[in-house]
Predict the 3D structure of the following.
Amino acid sequence: MKYEILLAEDDDSIRLVLNKALSRAGHNVKATDNPETLKKWALSGIGDIILTDVMMGGVEVFDILPEIMEARPNAPVVVISANNTVNTAIKSGQHQVFEYIPKPFELTDVVQAIARAGQSV
C-alpha cells in the first residue's frame, strides 16, 4: 500500500534523502522542517503516517505529540533521533510511538518501518 507521509526533519539533507526514498517507494510525502507545521497538517487531517525527528528548532516533538495523537489516534508515528538515549526511548514508549529509529539509520529501515506502520492504519 501507498500512504501519505508527513515528514518533519530540520536537517535539510536528511529530509531530502528521506523524501526521495519514500517517494521512490511510492508514497506521497509532505515535508517540513518545523514541528508547528507538522502539528498544523496533522490536526487538519492530512497524512496517514507521521515520520518525525525528536528535536527541531529547539522544540521536542514529544511536547506536541499528545495533541496530535488525541486528534489523530489512528495515525502511527515513527520517530527518528540522533539523541539516542534511554530517555528518548522511554518517552517514545510513553507517547505510544509506533517505532523509534536511532540515527544514523539505513534508509531501508525507515522504508520498512513506514510499511509496518501502514499495516496498522
